[in-house]
Amino acid sequence: MRETMLAAKGWVWVGFLLTYFVSAGRADDRIEEKLSKPVLLDKSLEKETSLKEAMQLLSKRHELNIVINGLEYKKQLKIFNIEQFPVSLQQMHGMPVRLQEKPVIHLGLIIELLAKQVDGTYEIKRDHIEIVPLQQGKRNPAPPLKMSKEETEQLDKKMQKLVSPGKGITPLQDVVEFLSDSSDIIIIVDSSEFKRAAKVENVTDLPITLPPQKRVPVKEILEQVAKQVKGRYKTKGGVALIVPEESQDNH
Q1: What is the pLDDT of residues 121-160, one digit of tens each?
Q2: What is the per-residue pLDDT across 41-89, written as a single tens digit (0 to 9) for each?
Q3: Which of 85, 111, 135 is the last residue of a domain?
Q4: Same domain (yes/no): 210, 99
Q5: Quick one: three-class SS letters along the chain?
Q6: Whether residue 113 sits in one domain with residue 66
Q7: Domain check: are 23 and 131 in the same one?
Q8: 237 lies in which domain range?
Q9: Same domain assignment for residues 130 and 220
């Protein structure tokens, strides 16, 4: 009789654990879906605000629980007020005006770019997202973002659009804005990554020289531009992202 009762209790615990892990998996899946969803860029984030305020805004707007792990920042980076550090998305100057009213950029990429400005990244937990510092000696990239087949095809098509950039020397920022306006692609220079991985300040001010070219795919011009700042471009979160060659983030 006693053995029967113990066995029954054992099965109850097994059932409880299975239910817990299944529900945890579903919670993770729901978070990942939200992170890979194209959203409108909130104009409140274009101006400097505290990390805490920015995460509270995104949490409320997108029904997510975003937590800043201040304890890890204190322990790893000796920063005691990380929540008050200023962040903004001013570097997202490559967004064409006509795209500002359309949901294009993924929510996960917005969170990632903001976290990078405080030497951080984000991790997906069972029922929340956690902003954590980048560990020394490790790149710790944010989780990959899934682009739908339709998104991928549309972006690839835009990358093949033919443009004719003028010759001369101009700052990287101006070239990016020209390519964005000409192709309807959001092109973001990951300034935080250039500072950290390549030790380059104000990368968007670097001069770019383009030879006379007519009707060249945007993709080829992006490759030429990225090489001149010792970088490369990749597609992530619905946009084209220019990162340094040294970056270990291959997502």
Answers
A1: 999 999 999 999 988 656 667 888 999 999 999 999 999 9
A2: 777 787 889 999 999 999 999 999 999 999 999 999 999 999 999 999 8
A3: 135
A4: no
A5: CHHHHHHHHHHHHHHHHHHHHHHHHHHHHHHHHHHCCECCCCHHHHCCEEHHHHHHHHHHHHCCCEEECHHHHHHHHCCCCHHHCEECCCCCCCCCHHHCCCCCCEHHHHHHHHHHCCCEEEEECCCCEEEEECCCCCCCCCCCCCCCHHHHHHHHHHHCCEECCCCEEEEHHHHHHHHHHHHCCCEEECHHHHHHHCCCCCHHHCEEEECCCCCEEHHHHHHHHHHHCCEEEEEECCEEEEEECCCCCCC
A6: yes
A7: yes
A8: 149-244
A9: no
